[in-house]
UniProtKB/TrEMBL annotation:
InterPro entries assigned: Epimerase_deHydtase, NAD(P)-bd_dom_sf, NAD(P)_dehydrat-like
Protein's name in the database: NAD-dependent epimerase/dehydratase domain-containing protein
Gene3D superfamilies, alphabetized: NAD(P)-binding Rossmann-like Domain (3.40.50.720)
Gene Ontology molecular function: oxidoreductase activity, acting on the CH-OH group of donors, NAD or NADP as acceptor
Boundaries of every NAD-dependent epimerase/dehydratase domain copy: 5-198
Transmembrane stretches, start-end: none
Keyword annotations from UniProtKB, A to Z: Oxidoreductase
Protein family membership: Belongs to the NAD(P)-dependent epimerase/dehydratase family. Dihydroflavonol-4-reductase subfamily.
Organism of this sequence: Alternaria tenuissima
PANTHER family referenced in this protein's UniProt entry, alphabetically: NAD DEPENDENT EPIMERASE/DEHYDRATASE, STEROL-4-ALPHA-CARBOXYLATE 3-DEHYDROGENASE, DECARBOXYLATING
């Protein structure tokens, strides 16, 4: 059965694969980008639009702008929230301002739009293994030294490892917002390593 899904951050590595796979499986896809004017960045998506006519719609959205995902979310039953700020350590001047607040507010903004969009029944959030543990020593405290969804990274902070901490804060907020309603379900993916050929 054909469904309509929203994929946030459509030009990103993971998101582009998700968009492509959804289209290959016959679904309609809405995806968001920072700027539709950036044709070079949007080219892989524009190519997919040509390959799958009438199946892929592109929308401009800003993670930090309240309500900017609402239009893209209309008529969608699933939201794949993949967009998130990513900075290499050298780019981070203020961990809270540069990493944590954008990740938290971005997740919050997307889920507020989910709550306002009756058609959405499932949210799939891309988090990170970094939300489960911060330092390798943490694994020794885990049952059978195995990561699972019952563990949270408690060692990183906005100053010690802001990227990892941002993943903890954003995922916790997603679960909190999920628990406050009963219409949609939440699935969280925590990849440890992302590799493969680029589609862009």
């Amino acid at each position: 059965m054909s469904q309509t899904a929203l994929v946030t951050g459509g030009t990103g590595f993971i998101a582009l694969y998700v968009v492509k796979l959804l289209l290959e499986h016959g679904h309609h896809v809405h995806t968001t980008v920072r700027s539709l004017a950036n044709k070079k960045k949007c080219k892989p998506l524009l190519d997919l639009q040509t390959q799958y006519p009438g199946k892929l719609a592109l929308f401009e959205a800003d993670l930090l702008s309240h309500g900017s995902f609402f239009q893209a979310m209309q008529a969608c039953d699933t939201v794949y929230h993949i967009a998130s700020p990513f900075l290499v350590p050298q780019q981070i001047k203020d961990g809270m301002k540069d990493c944590v607040e954008p990740a938290l507010n971005g997740t919050r903004n997307v889920i507020v739009s989910v709550n306002d969009t009756e058609s959405v029944k499932r949210v799939v959030l891309t988090s990170s293994i970094a939300a489960m543990y911060g330092d390798s020593i943490d694994i020794h405290k885990m049952e059978r030294k195995t990561l699972s969804e019952k563990y949270w990274n408690t060692t990183n902070t906005a100053t010690t490892n802001p990227y990892s901490f941002s993943k903890v804060v954003a995922e916790r907020e997603a679960w909190k917002m999920y628990e406050a309603q009963d219409r949609w379900e939440l699935v969280v993916i925590n990849p440890g390593l992302v590799v493969g050929p680029s589609l862009s």
